[in-house]
Amino acid sequence: MDRYIYSIMPVSSDGDYRAKRVSLSSVAGEFDLSVHFPLDRGLPKEGKEFDLSRVVAEIKRATLVIADLSLERPSCYYELGLAQALDAKVGLIARSGTNVHQAFGRNSVVEFDNLQEYSSAVRRVLVSSGL
């Protein structure tokens, strides 16, 4: 069975997205995990609905959900809410100084200051999740 991390993170609004994606995939590989980036499956075509059942199924199958709450994106909080409501195992990360809004576990957010620390933050989440 495919063991994977379901990634919740800012995409177009985060200039560091590509570098974070590479780091996340690299660290996941150290734990024999792949990473599921939801947008790799494509955005709904104009006029089509967001496929909630697909997202729910993918979150349920995930070994771990990692939510990067940097930049305070509403879409990230939406997906995080789904994951937490589904009782998925979730790890939270954010750039230091990010105002973390209403999220269960907000006091356990693993912070990072820069891209060099991002990999370490992800690794800490994986270790603390028992993976």
Task: Break the fold down into its secondary structure elements and pairings.
Blueprint: E1 4-8, H1 17-30, E2 34-36, H2 52-61, E3 64-68, H3 74-85, E4 90-95, E5 110-112, H4 115-128
Parallel strand pairs: 1-2, 1-3, 3-4, 4-5
Largest sheet: 5 strands, parallel
State the helical fraction: 25-40%
Total helical elements = 4
Return the structural class: alpha/beta
Order of neighbouring strands in the sheet with most strands: 2-1-3-4-5
Overall pLDDT score = 89
The geometry reads as globular
Radius of gyration: 14 Å
Indicate the low-confidence ranges by residue numbers: none
Summary?
With 131 residues, the chain is α/β, with parallel strands linked by helices. The chain is 38% helix and 17% strand. It has helices at residues 17-30, 52-61, 74-85, 115-128, and strands at residues 4-8, 34-36, 64-68, 90-95, 110-112.
